[in-house]
Fold:
Amino acid sequence: TSGDAVEQLSNGDTGRYAADVAHKISADGPARAFLVVHGA
Structure:
């Protein structure tokens, strides 16, 4: 979730989101993620 936006991802998907509003990445079970911060 990012602000009011919600996106559901599957294995191998890429998610992009606004980080200048309240945001979180969550999973129903164990998960592994790779985070890239661009333009910080």
